[in-house]
Design brief:
- This protein is mainly alpha-helical.
- It is 46% helix and 11% strand.
- The chain has a three-stranded antiparallel β-sheet with strand order 1-3-2.
- β2 and β3 form a beta hairpin.
- The radius of gyration is 13 Å and the shape is globular.
- It starts with 7 loop residues before the first helix and ends with a helix.
């Protein structure tokens, strides 16, 4: 089945993958956003301007939500896969193990 647009569960994995590949497994939110198109093909719906973020493409909003939704039970932080940095994330050993379970 073809993906219609990026959703937060997929964006969580992308954020972890991108940060885990960096020195100290750390990446700023903007760096993660810049690298997402290297990992997935963005669809027409991904590129649609967000209604709530001043025209920012929807996919960038979704990726930003991964970092800003740190208090949700499904977040990469609540699950122990990453820790929040002032402007990004650091992937934990548990996050690396999770990515390995997924085949990354």
């Amino acid at each position: 089945m073809e993906r219609d647009r990026l959703r937060e569960p997929e964006a969580r994995i992308l954020a972890l993958r991108i940060a885990a590949a960096q020195p100290n497994r750390e990446a700023e939110t903007e760096f993660i956003k810049v690298r997402v198109p290297d990992y997935i093909e963005l669809t027409e719906l991904d590129l649609k301007p967000s209604d709530t973020r001043g025209g920012e493409p929807v996919w960038r909003q979704i990726v930003g939500n991964v970092v800003s939704h740190q208090n949700q039970s499904t977040s990469i932080f609540a699950k122990g896969y990453a820790v929040r940095l002032p402007d990004g994330i650091r992937v934990t050993d548990a996050g690396v193990a999770y990515l390995a379970e997924l085949g990354f």
